[in-house]
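Contributing new records

If you add data, match the layout below exactly. Sequence lines come first and carry their own label; structure lines follow with theirs. Keep one chain per record. Anything else will be rejected by the validation script.
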Amino acid sequence: MSLSRQIRQDRLNARTSERENSLSQQELTSQQSTPDQTVLKQGVRLLTGILILLLIAFCFFASSVCITIVVAAFLSILVDPAVTALERIRIPRFFAAALIVLLEFSLWLVGLRFVRQIDGFF
């Protein structure tokens, strides 16, 4: 019995080593790349770099637009209670919003005049 077990073990080892050899040959052939694949990989890396640079440039130039949108959204949230209060006294929402914008603009002008007067003292 021990002889038959030894033979089986030898056959199993032989099969395993054949599989490992065939796998290692397949891995070697798959790892070797043709010149076309090398050029393709370099092209993909180059395009990825260009895409990243374009994304950074877009963020840089779009920042002024994004800041404007964020400030507008903040102001709309800030003045919504005032517009809603004017709606309760039967002023249409469009006119209420326009009235609030004009009020804010006039307050900005008064503040600008005040700052200029203070600037004269220093």
